[in-house]
Design brief:
212 residues; Rossmann fold
């Protein structure tokens, strides 16, 4: 295995205890009844990820940004998340957040803990309220393409990357990176592809596998 230089983390279910920041926001804003229907349509292949995101975001049209940020600020971190990111960066690793969730969530982590780069999906805001529009930067099946671009910006090869996460969006990533760590995996394919599987509530258990 090549020397690892960059670690990419999924966010929902990995750095945060919340399995889906989209669903968490729906439940907090009282829109989950409709949101659940859209999620089922996506899982059945009736709509694309982009269409799903657009339908979801429209349900939040007119919501104050500060209210949404307050909800996101209450999402609990996974035990050890801050320590792991801090230790990796101090050890010379680049730390990247790559999420098919919301950039408001990754921005919180950037602000509170600090990372080298983050990419997620943007809810559009005008005059302090959500417009109901969304910019999809990371579709569920687009994480490998995104990671290739990010790694290139840092001058890092994919075999020099470790990826940590729990869901099917990381399956193609695990097929190409030097080290795939499934953290409480929710997907059987991901678990089969993982070099390391951690089934534990404490993210610090991934550290020895990355830093040796």
């Amino acid at each position: 295995m090549a020397q690892l230089r960059l670690v990419v983390f999924d966010v929902d279910g990995t750095l945060l205890k919340v399995r889906s920041s989209w669903q968490h926001l729906h439940e907090a804003l009282g829109t989950w009844d409709k949101g659940k229907q859209y999620a089922e349509q996506f899982s059945q292949g009736l709509i694309s990820y982009e269409e799903w995101a657009e339908l979801d975001a429209f349900l939040w049209r007119g919501q104050p940004l500060e209210k949404v940020k307050l909800i996101i600020g209450g999402m609990p971190y996974t035990l050890g998340a801050e320590e792991v990111i801090t230790a990796l960066r101090k050890g010379g690793f680049r730390v990247v957040l790559l999420s098919a969730g919301l950039s408001l969530v990754t921005e919180r982590i950037e602000r509170e803990i600090g990372v080298d780069y983050a990419l997620a999906n943007d809810l559009i805001v005008e005059d302090g309220v959500l417009t109901g529009d969304v910019k999809v930067n990371v579709p569920l099946d687009g994480k490998l393409d995104a990671l290739q671009r990010i790694a290139g910006q840092f001058g890092v090869k994919l075999e020099e990357c470790a990826a940590v996460g729990d869901d099917e969006g990381l399956v193609p990533v695990f097929e190409h990176v030097g080290l795939g760590i499934a953290f409480n995996p929710q997907d059987e394919r991901l678990e089969k592809l993982a070099r390391v599987i951690v089934k534990n509530g404490d993210l610090r258990h991934v550290l020895p596998h990355i830093v040796g």
